[in-house]
Design goal:
TIM Barrel; alpha/beta; 2 domains; binds D-gluconic acid; binds manganese (II) ion; two-stranded antiparallel sheet; single chain; 15 helices; eight-stranded parallel beta sheet
Length: 389
Amino acid sequence: MSDIYSPRPEHKFTFGLWTVGNTGADAFGEAVRSHLSAADLVYLLGEVGAYGVNFHDNDLIPIDATASERAAILKAFKKALSDTGLIVPMATTNLFGNPVFKDGAFTSNDPKVRAYALQKTMHAIDLGVELGAGVYVFWGGREGIETDAAKDPVAATKRFREALNFVCEYAIDQGYDLKFALEAKPNEPRGDLYFATTGAYLGFIETLDHPEMVGVNPEMAHEQMAGLNFMHAVAQAWEAGKLFHIDLNDQNYARFDQDWRFGAQNLKQAFFLVKFLEDVGYAGSRHFDAHAYRTEDHEGVKDFARGCMRTYLILKEKGARFNADPDIQTLLAEINADDGSVDALKGAYSAAKAAAIKAHAFDREAIATRGLQYEKLDQLTVELLLGVR
Ligand code: GCO
Ligand code: MN
Ligand code: MN
């Protein structure tokens, strides 16, 4: 049975093979769910109504696969895509799982590791493009340190820049229509990761040779791990024209990367995020980088995936209600009222305007004593979210 909260292709809901394929193994315990093939995972995603599937190179093709194994996996995967109608909007490289990357990939002190990381990435880009990906994500899984005695952070930054410049040129050379999206995380699996926040990447991108090809892939849990307001990071990326992709999930503050179902923990933050994406008309994938609780079997994985999408759509509808709510909108109009009395003081600098601002007599006390009614506004928001208005 479908309702307005049922996923449709235009919602652009995507999952990684590594998300619904997560077997529940963690640092303390082994897998609780059987491994499903990439093709099986595509059928699972088709069943729950997703639009697309993303992957790391080795989610699809094991790092030591033979040529014939590779061909068989690709054949089954492509068949599953065409049977289900799912597409591959994004691809990425696993530069963290294999022991060769124990001290990073592009920022490793070892030039052999850096060159191998480039080789692996170019092959993975070829694979992603072959399957239709238009966005290619870089998450610096092991790009960091446990001890700052080991690596020079300036050298690491320069190495990362060199690698990004290299892959941009590679994509141009191949004639690929590809954009790169950088994903920040403060820590885990390293003690500290370089480029800890989305904001750090937004600054870094402008130092690249092809900044127009590179944007960000902010992840909700990663900014929350750092105690930051995720929506603000997304808004800054959007305003800079750099929101190329987004990883949605949830997280309790100050924990390890929990990767919970979207909306599982911080509903209000999730609401403002969804409202932001919908209000500005973000047109990219809504990618869920999360996985089911370790308590779940494969049916529970489907419940998890359906839950991510359903919660997104419920919050989207709440956002539309917020925008149409007369009490909320009246309040917002009052809050943002402008009597025009300082129109002449607004806008860009001119010497005359600077002089006018300096000469203006402000009634500081009258301005300062005005109540802003944010308590009322927030309570209306909470009541809307709780379903009583
Ligand atoms: C994590 C990251 C990854 C990346 C993925 C795609 O914390 O493990 O979020 O899941 O998103 O490697 O780049
Ligand atoms: Mn993550
Ligand atoms: Mn992620």
